[in-house]
Each structure stands twice: as C-alpha cells, then as structure tokens.
C-alpha cells in the first residue's frame, strides 16, 4: 500500500535515511533531520504540486501497516519518460517488495500515464538493485561516470542505467 508523504512524515524519512546500510550506495551517510525537514520533504511535496500523478510515495506492508520505505516515479527532462526508484528499510530487504513496487510503478507509467519510456539508475557496484531492475523488466542500457565531490567506494566503476520502452513492456505483457 502506498500514499503521498505529508509534512508530518519527517520522522519516517529521518528513520529511513539514518541507516548507513540503506544509504550505502546513495550518500554513504545519514541524512540529518533538519535536511529532511527543510530540503528533502519540501522537494517531495513540490513534485506532487507540479506533477499530479508522479512523486515519491510512502510504502507500507499490507499485512500490518508497517512503514517499509518509499517508491518514486519522478519526472525527467523528457515529458514521456519517468525515472523509477525506491528506498527500503533493511527489515524489508529480500522480501520481494522492491521488485513488486518497481513493477507496479512501471505498469502505472505505461498503463495509466501513457509514458513511452521508464528509466532507473544505480551505482554499478550495487548488484542487489541491479537485480531488482532486471526482475522488474528493465534492461541494461549503459555505464556512465559522474564526478562527485566526496565519492563513495565503488564510484570508480561508474553508474548504470536500465530502461524499458513501451513496445517492450507491451510485448512482455502479452507473453
């Protein structure tokens, strides 16, 4: 089950971003509460205001309503393309939530929103996220390199992009 975040969700996001293993391939450090409150959450809410169907959504286990993290479908510079991603609490890892949520976002992007392409990116060394991308129907596109002021271990191997286009998604649904 997913819902939009609200201004009252600072603690949920702070808890998620305070786990160094969760943040390992993102920033490598915890996100301070004031940054969540003053930057991260306002940015999430701004996407809702500008793009009615897109954004970052709080995810909960259906069975007991426990917060497990978030899934996002973000606008890109290309109007018919969205980027998907997720961040889950460690307690939710290895249970299929990442793949299930990513597939649901891809289906919504094509089936409801009329998108032409869905993309996702991660560090090349983040093998678990790469596996989720493949299981979700995304296919490897490229390796690219970015310059970071404070690079994480593994940055030297680059970032990877995975994607699926509408014809490929449609063909997979008919198989």
Q: Can you walk me through this structure?
A:
The chain has a single domain, classed as Gcn5-related N-acetyltransferase (GNAT) (Aminopeptidase, 3-Layer(aba) Sandwich), CATH 3.40.630.30. The protein has five helices and seven strands; from the N terminus they run βααβββαβαββα. It is globular, with a radius of gyration of 16 Å. The relative contact order is 0.13. The model has no long low-confidence stretch (mean pLDDT 95). One of its GO terms (molecular function) is acyltransferase activity, transferring groups other than amino-acyl groups.
Note the main sheet: 7 strands, mixed
Strand content: 25-35%
Strands of the biggest beta sheet: in what spatial order? Answer: 1-2-3-4-5-7-6
What number of domains? 1
Task: Please identify, by name, the CATH architecture.
Answer: 3-Layer(aba) Sandwich
Structural class: alpha+beta
Overall CATH class: Alpha Beta
Large-scale geometry: globular
Radius of gyration of CA atoms, rounded to a whole number: 16 Å
Number of strands: 7
Number of helices: 5
Q: How is the quaternary structure best described?
A: single chain
| Percentage of residues assigned to helices | 25-40%
Briefly note the CATH topology name.
Answer: Aminopeptidase
N→C terminal distance: 27 Å
Order of helices and strands: EHHEEEHEHEEH
Low-pLDDT residue intervals, each spanning 5 or more residues = none
CATH superfamily: Gcn5-related N-acetyltransferase (GNAT)
Mean pLDDT: 95
InterPro entries: Acyl_CoA_acyltransferase, GNAT_dom, N-acetyltransferase
Protein name: N-acetyltransferase
Keywords: Transferase
GO molecular function, one term: acyltransferase activity, transferring groups other than amino-acyl groups
């Amino acid at each position: 089950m997913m819902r939009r975040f609200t201004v009252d969700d600072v603690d949920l996001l702070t808890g998620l971003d305070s786990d160094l293993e969760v943040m390992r391939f993102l920033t490598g450090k915890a996100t301070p509460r004031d940054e969540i409150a003053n930057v991260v959450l306002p940015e999430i809410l701004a996407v809702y205001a500008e793009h009615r169907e897109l954004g970052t959504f709080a995810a909960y286990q259906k069975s007991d309503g426990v917060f497990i993290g978030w899934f996002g479908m973000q606008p890109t510079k290309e109007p018919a393309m969205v980027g998907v991603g997720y961040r889950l609490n460690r307690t939710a890892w290895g249970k299929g939530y990442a793949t299930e949520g990513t597939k649901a976002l891809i289906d919504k992007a094509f089936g409801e929103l009329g998108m032409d392409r869905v993309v996702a990116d991660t560090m090349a060394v983040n093998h678990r996220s790469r596996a989720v991308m493949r299981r979700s129907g995304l296919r490897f596109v490229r390796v690219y390199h970015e310059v970071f002021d404070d690079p994480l271990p593994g940055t030297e191997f680059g970032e990877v992009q995975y994607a699926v286009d509408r014809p490929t998604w449609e063909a997979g649904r008919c198989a």
